[in-house]
Amino acid sequence: MTETPQTTFNRVLLKISGEALMGDQGYGLHPPTVERIAREVKTVHDMGVEICMVIGGGNIFRGLAGSAQGMERTTADYMGMLATVMNALAMQSALEEIGVYTRVITAIRMDEVAEPYIRRRAVRHLEKKRVCIFAAGTGNPYFTTDTASALRANEMACEALFMGKNGTDGVYDSDPRTNPDAKRYDKVSYDEVLQKNLKVMDASAIALARDNNLPIIVFPLDEPGGFRGILAGQGTYTRVG
């Protein structure tokens, strides 16, 4: 019988981008990729960790991109929120297929497909070891899913916010794909992220995490076993905070 690794975290939030669900496609959902990420989540769930998730919607529609093409910003942002709900439902399906009870909880009411966001009910789901996927951002235009993840992590009293990134193993001072001399940080402060405009999360999300002492762990999502490994104290990552 394999011994389950120990972790110091009891409750965490995992934030992933919508693009992480595309696989090698240029658009939409790639079911094998969704299933792979679901298995990663299950390995951490099996460690006894309570898990929240926030998934972006950029693989389907990005509000800022729509706004840049002449669409009214608020309408574009609401369309982006609906895209996050589609991703959340896909992840819920993949998780429940492998035996992980999951609830999709939306900031905009759509009772036929998901639960409305009620904080105490969401906390109870976590206590019952259900994965909670928070969708539709904060329910407000002009706020990104990065800000939604920092907000929900604080509301759920998560001990850390895990940012799963594709193609990078942490935070760098410049893009390592274009600059081979880019320096990777093992640890970086919130203020340094803001001052140097390091591409971790948007400024409002970083400020919200800083003001509530919420650690942000940036790690490679495309590395098999990466999420579980980081929680067990192994692997490569950057800690913000």
Automatic annotation (TrEMBL):
It is found in: Cytoplasm. One of its GO terms (cellular component) is cytoplasm. It holds the Pfam family AA_kinase. Keywords: Allosteric enzyme, ATP-binding, Cytoplasm, Kinase, Nucleotide-binding, Pyrimidine biosynthesis, Transferase. One of its GO terms (molecular function) is UMP kinase activity. Its main location: cytoplasm. Allosterically activated by GTP. Inhibited by UTP. UMP binds at residues 57, 77, 138-145. ATP binds at residues 15-18, 58, 62, 166, 172, 175. CDD domains: AAK_UMPK-PyrH-Ec (cd04254). Residues 23-28 are annotated as: Involved in allosteric activation by GTP. Its EC number is 2.7.4.22. Residues 10-219 form the Aspartate/glutamate/uridylate kinase domain. One of its GO terms (biological process) is 'de novo' CTP biosynthetic process. It catalyses: UMP + ATP = UDP + ADP. Pathway: Pyrimidine metabolism; CTP biosynthesis via de novo pathway; UDP from UMP (UMPK route): step 1/1. NCBIfam families: pyrH_bact. HAMAP family: PyrH_B. Catalyzes the reversible phosphorylation of UMP to UDP. Belongs to the UMP kinase family. This is Uridylate kinase. It comes from Salipiger thiooxidans.
